[in-house]
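User: Could you check the structure of this?
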Amino acid sequence: MSCAKAIGWVLTMKRTVLRSLCALWLLAPSAQAAEPAPRPADVTPQVDAIFKGFVGQPGCNVGVVHSGKLVLERSYGLADISQDVPLGPETRFDIGSMSKQFTAAAVLILVDQGKIGLDVDIHKYVPELPSYGAKVTIRQMLHHTSGIMDFYELLKLAGWVYGDAVSEHDALWALTRMPRLNFAPGTRESYSDGNYVLLGLVVERVSGQPLGAYLQSTIFGPLGMTHTVLTGDHTVVVPHEARPYAVLDGPPRLMANRFDSVGNGGIVTTVEDLALWEGNFDNPRVGGAKVVAEMQTVEPLADGSENNYAFGLMIRSYRGLRTVEHDGGNGGFISDKVRFPSAGLTFIALCNRRDPANIIRKLHQVADLYLGLAPEGPSPGQASASAAAPKWSATDLATLAGPYCSADRWEFHIFTVENEGLVDENGARYSRTGRFEFKDAQGATYRFVLESGVATAVEREIPGSKAAPMRYARMQPPQSDLREYAGMYVSPELATAWCVEATDKGLVLRRKRFQDEAVHPAWRDAFDMEGETLFDRVNNQITGFTLMGNRLSGGVRFVKEKHEGACTPY
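Assistant: Sure, the predicted structure tokens are below.
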């Protein structure tokens, strides 16, 4: 996993609509797996049972599309709990990053018209971006292989807090101030909203229209998606839009974002309108067969490794079946849409609740019903390590515990021992397949390298990958005296200053508009400070740090500066 992610949520069925299911026995079996078991004529009660916990709470609208036709639509829960307004087919939801497929479609339509070049450098359309020292193409941005940083992560470092309005201007400000890439273009895939906000801007500049207007005239209107809008203005009142909630401990609380950037998200729509969009993949009326096919095309990385991000869509596999999907989230809105091309089926969930409940897993349970698949058991990588433990001594595990980081500092793991098993920094448990060999939940193999009985590195091998195994070197433990890290640190690029103070209880990070927070060491000269933070030394003196936060693996540099009196962040 990325360092940023590791070192670093969260019915009464008062109104339901049931589409006719009389033709479901005609659904085609998949050619990619054994023929599913015979399907019941009506699985609605089983679908209802999956979402029964949403009674009287924020919930979800769920749809099933077969060969471009909506065959099931159900509403579970409330659109507005303060007014006791139930969800219904007319309810609209912000679909967050699911919007990216529409931006990608808009780009490909303009490419088909000869107005945009896929392999043209982004600077042709957005010349105000800094020079990266490498060509960054539109194609790479569509596939998230450009290396461009995530603008929102940059804004957070610059002082934006949750709930602040974020405009297209803000996004462009952050991106134009960052001259580094996360990696050489085409060599890796790293999801970044920076790619798609810039692609939205390209569509606007080439078409001469706001992105929302272009999508309306080119996609939404022609397909009859009359309940779908992209305003780019969070103050606009959208009729029948649900209110978004966080459902954690205690009663639900409002959780609204104020994103006005477009291209990366912002579309508000309904299950019925998304069914019309899905129908376009079966019978292309917008973009034509060429654009529809290209949207589902992936491109390998420079070393031949697979990249499953196509054009605003993810090409994955579920239980041996190829899927075309994308989820999304914005504040309390969560959405997911999964298509099984071989079965002609698409499953949609649009929700106004963010909580520990796994909406994607619930949608997969609905898919199991329609595909005639038995309930899914644990994957091989999730199998209990205890089943294999008797073959090898648990005492060996203590020699493996500790921090490991890749040579390029882009990825790392911190392993600990819990209940005679190996666990990483996220609490994920690894199944043991050898004395010093383990597998994660995705099936990747981890082999520890020992010298004189001490683990010095671990190598990760991903099944099917053509790349050499990723090697993580074991890092030195942190120092006991942390006072030398205290001081003022300034990022000239983001025009912000942070203060690190030494207290009796350890280090504390102080930032303008943020609460003070404890700073915890991960290994020598590495800390958890809004992400993996690596301090630099010159002549054994701390001179600054590089923060490699979430989606910022290229690093944001902070320089240590002298200051008079108490350190004041800005």
